[in-house]
Amino acid sequence: MTKKQPAEQENPKVDPKDESNRIKDPSQWTTGGEPMTGAQASYLKTLSEEAKHPDAFEPDLDKAEASQRIDALRKEAGRD
Fold first, then answer.
1. Which residue(s) pair with 62 in the sheet?
2. Has residue 21 been placed in a domain?
3. 26 part of a folded domain
4. pLDDT of 60
5. Does 57 reside within a domain?
6. Is residue 41 included in any domain, yes or no?
């Protein structure tokens, strides 16, 4: 029996039973209540302008709220 090299060992990140790697709803993020990131703010501002919904951008959104609005605007714009 040969010893597996590190690159050949099973990757725990691809275990289908490991739910920790699944995409979580933004409302369940542990950091969802923190202020949105600069990247989120920039992207949300761009999407809201493109979708003709400038009121969708609010500078005081948290990460979870920003993510949900980004997802909604992406769907509306057909970017999914």
1. 35
2. no
3. no
4. 93
5. yes
6. yes
CB–CB of 35/9 below 8 Å?
no
Tokens of 31: 């950091």
Task: Give the structural domain span for 39.
Answer: 32-80
Residues in the chain: 80
Q: What φ, ψ does residue 45 adopt, rounded to 5°?
A: -60, -45
pTM tops 0.90: no
6-19 pLDDT per residue, tens: 555 666 566 656 65
Place of tokens 């275990």: 15
Distance CA 2, CA 38 (A): 49
- pLDDT tens digits, 26-74: 767 666 678 999 999 999 999 999 989 999 999 999 999 999 999 999 9
